[in-house]
Structure formats: C-alpha cells, structure tokens
Design goal:
about 700 residues; alpha+beta; Heat Shock Protein 90; Ribosomal Protein S5, domain 2; Rossmann fold; 4 domains; nine-stranded mixed beta sheet; five-stranded mixed beta sheet; 22 strands; about 15% strand
Amino acid sequence: MSAKDDPNASFSLFGDDALSPPPASPFPAREPHPEPAPRPAAPPPPGAIAKPAPAPAPSSGGYDASSIEVLEGLEPVRMRPGMYIGGTDERALHHLFAEVLDNSMDEAVAGFAKTIEVKLDADGYLSVRDDGRGMPVDEHPKHPGKSALEVIMTVLHAGGKFSGKAYETSGGLHGVGASVVNALSELVEVTVWRDGFEHRQSFARGKPLGPVEQIQPSKKKGTQVRFKPDDQIFGEGCGFKPARLYRMARSKAYLFRGVQIKWSCDPSRIHDQTPPEATFHFPNGLADFLAERTKGLELVTPDSFSGRIERQGEAGAVEWAIAWTPRGFGEHDGFMQSYCNTVPTPEGGTHESGLRAALTRGLKAYAELKGEKRATIITADDVIAQAGALISVFIKNPEFQGQTKEKLSSSEAQRFVENALRDPFDHWLTGSPKAAQALLEFVIERAEERLKRRKDKEVSRASATRKLRLPGKLADCAAGAVDGAELFIVEGDSAGGSAKQARNRKNQAILPLRGKILNVASATGEKFSANKELSDLMLALGAQGGNRYKEEDLRYERIIIMTDADVDGAHIASLLITFFYRTMPDLIRQGHLFLALPPLYRISHGGKSAYARDDAHKDELLATLFKGKKPEIGRFKGLGEMMASQLKETTMDPAVRTLAKITLPRSEEAVEALVETLMGRKPELRFRFIQENAEFAADDLDL
C-alpha cells in the first residue's frame, strides 16, 4: 500500500524542507588586507535613545523564517486530505458524497426541501440536487467581488451553520464540507435555482473557472452539486461504488421521515444487484428501517420499542427503534447504529450512552416492581447484547470528535436521550406484561451467561483439559505460548489417537469431536447453548463468540480443521466453517482458520511411495511419477486408518504439509447469502440452488 493510501502514514508538519533542509551557504572568503580602524560613533540626535546593535544570528542549519510555509486557500486540503476526510481510501472517497448529501439533508430537516435527487452518470460524475432555498449567489460583504457561492466552495470555515440563525439543527457544522469536496474533486459544477433565475459556477481542483453566471430565468428552487473525485488524490481509476451510494442514500431517508430521496444510476456502472432507479420515503422513519432488518427473524417481544419525541420550547428531537432476537443479526449478536442531525456516528458517543442508561434503568425498575431479585446483576451490555438498536438525535450545536464526525461528545445529548426515553420505555413495559416478562427473562439469562463465561475464562490451561474429558478430550500443547500454537480439530477418537501420536507435543494440540457437529445456521439459540461439542470447542479456544470476540483471548495461533478426505469429512468441515463464520467471523478475517488437506490415496512401487489428495492428483501421479509401472494403490477410508508416521509426514508436519487458509471475499454479502441458502432453515433455497447448479456437477456424477 502506498503512503497515499495509508491513513497512518507520517508526514511532516513543516513542509519537505524541514525533513531535508538545504545546506547552509558557506561564509565568504576573507580578504588578506588589514581591517580599517573603527570610526567613533556619531552622537545620537537629541531625544533619541541609543539602541544596541543586533547580535549576529546563530547558525540554524538553514531553518529560518523562509522555511515556514503558509498554505493559501484549499492547498492544505489537497496536501493533507487525511486531516479532513480521514484518508484517501474507499471510505474517505465516499465521505465526499456524505458531505454533499448532509448539506441537502440540512435543508430538508430545516423544512425547506422535500425531495433530494442522487444521480451517478456513466462518466463517474455524481450529482446531488435538492429543492431547498438554494445557495446564496449575491456578493459576500467580507469578500468584495466574490459571490457567497464562491466563498462557500473555496474558503475553509465558510458556512451558514455557525450561529444557528439559518439552521436550528444541522449536520454540517465546521464550514469545510463543500470546500473540501471542491478541493478534492477533478471538476465541480454548482447549479443554483434562486430568485427567479438559474445560476451556475464551475471549479477545477478547488479553483473557480470563472464567476457565477446567470443562465436563464427559472421558477425552480434548490441547489445541485455535480462532481467527480480527483484521481490525483484517490488514485488512478477511482470511482464511486453504486451499492455503497445506494445504501447511504437509503439510510438518510430513514433518518428523516419528511424527505423523499430519488436514486438513479447509469446501468453501465452497476455490476451487482443494485437497482438503477429507486425512490426512498419512509413515513415511519427508523421503525421501518428496523422492520426491514428484523424481517424473518424470531423476536423476543412481538413488537419493537420505537418512537419519536420532539423537545418542547427549543430545537431538538430524538427518534429510536429497538428489537431483541435470540438468534442474532447475521454474523453479529446485536448492533447499534446512531446518528446526530442525520450524520452517522459509527463510534457512538453520548447519545448511545443515554439510550443504554435509559433501557437499563427502566428494565431494572420494572424487575423491582415485579419482585425479580435476579435482575440486580443486569448491566447495560446485557440489555444491548442481542438487540438491534437505532437512535437518531437532533440537537443544536453538537460537538463531534474530528471533522468526519464519527463520535458525538455533547453531554447534552446523553441527558436529553435518557430523559426522553424514560417514560416511553416504562409505558411500553407496563402496557405489555407478557412481552416485558419475556424480555426481562431474556436479559437475565444473558447476564447469567456472562458471569458463567467470566468464571470459565479464569480456568487455566490444565483445568481446561480436565473439563474437556468427555465427549471430546483435549490433548493440549506443552508450551504455554500462543505464538506458533496449533489446534487440530479432528473427527472421532480413532483419528484423534493417530493425531496425538503424530503431533509435536510442544505446540500442537488435538481436539477430537464426535460425529457431525450442530448446524448453527439453522439451530435455535437454546440448542446452540446446550450443545456440548461446541461448548467444549469454545472453551478450548479461550475466545468468546459474537461481538465479544477478542483476538488476544485466542489460545492458538492457528485453528486447523482436519477431517477425512471424503464426503462426510467435507460435510463436517463445512459445518465447522459455518460455525466459525457465524460465531466469530473476525477469527477468519484475521487469518487464524485453516483446512488440512490429508491424502486420499497412497501409491507405492518398489521403494518409492507418494500420496494423492484426490482422484485427479492420483491420475497425475500415475501418468508422471509412476508412468509405465504397476504400482500398488491404497485408499484411506479415514484419518484413523493412517499410521501416525503417515499422518505426520502428509498432514501435520509444517515442513511438508499443505494447508488451505479460509478467507472471506472483500464483499461478504454474497457469502452470507450462500451460507443462508446452503445451511439455513429453508430447504426450498437449497433445492433451487441444486436446480441452478446441477449442470456444473454433471461430470462428477455416476450416470
């Protein structure tokens, strides 16, 4: 990765000259003639104060006033884009769209815009248009000769959202969003419909190509910003991803129920299932968003807890939607998405803290009312652990950490959210006693599981061996270090016996499993928690599942699935991979999961022997290494049939073995869909998959 693509790359704050200063000029050679005698100084004029002569400046290695650079206009943005948008990667590129969209959303939240249009054309230009008031185009009083539009687009910290006069609540706060987009774009065209006319001005890499032009009379109102990212900043061939733009636009529509967002994209730029045209309008706001996320999932309560409250007497509002499910949300047990003034805050902040506090206190108060003493152990993490939560606040003058606004730090937001949700949550609990009791029992179970896991985590490596005596017996490493430690998961005691003899006791551990494990993609949460095989495996790993997974808790550097080289072995391997993908996907992303490739055949002739992975490899060896000979071919029915020496030299010895690393593609949506199709609860999806893909397996069938 180049320095341009690395957000952590270090740069000089003082310019390039500070890192490699120019050499100092040599002193001029002194002439060999004698110096003249000093003349007496003339007396100062009456009333003057004699000043001492300045001392000669010490040598500074060329670092003087001329070394200090002053960047003008938008130069700082182009030189250090990471300071303004967090880097130059794909996320930062799409942040440009977020900045422009936030400005249009501010117009909608302020009540001036009803419709926002987002369009990605064939040339890679992205347009965002709203029907709000339109940017001012008259001359700016502090910048004579420049329109307000030009000032907005070319001057950092120029905007209408500092004082709160133009906008009561807004997502744009720092006055840098539009100008940053302008600075980092190859070309920007701003069209304004205002005061009965259409106005337009174009910019190239932050610099205006001319003044604002009055194009023609028009009765329309609003602003359109059309721009294309600069490949000098983001790299050659950079461009927006339609799927990502689509999701960002849709999420904005959920956040403000009074806006309609129209999406369109040239079909030539779409390479997935993203629709070329769509209209987003959600009258129920976040409740609609959550209903879509929980569609088809089993919920703890029949209805979600959702609502919206506007602050009386001053600007401000809060909207929320929460649901709990025992199965979790895909690869995560739960999720929380928060927003402030329609700006996403992926790192959370004070509004999330207010939500957690309100839910925890409300549930504890309800438990006390019902005389449930077990609820004293409940924490906020227990309440939120398997919840899907959405929270959106609108407040004046919010405080964020950084220009990209990833975390809200306004203390006001926590008080506002906590006070706003207290009574609605109490009424929701008391209004549905059965649902409230189910939720309380569910959260208490989570708390009890947490305490049990804490005790299990304190178990040493030796006690872990004792715990796993039956049904699976862990033969652990002799060394205590995690680096280099390997855990082989094998099927059956016979294979486990051979593996234990073949292993390197110092850093290789063996965990035999009995038969096929539980299919976690179709099993209920109760079955999962009650499964002894999986609980033994989790205990041996030392790590927890879901969002509680931490790499530092993992007791082994490599987890290697070693099953028989047959159909049953492949099935067991797929079940284990599904378990890791659904339970701890970060273990796969971090490169800890491997698949051993044991041989299926042993071919020998005279003193020569070789091993073949499959039929194709066997045919290849017969045609090359054993060409013209009649070797003896032995087929292994399973790992248990292999001698320890054979298993070691083919599958377990790092010097000669072959391991397949389990990885995830960059786009994981397709993986999730495939896992749900092949391993989920719906047999009709598997039937359809077989019908669609049967032709590709025709060569492998005995017909």
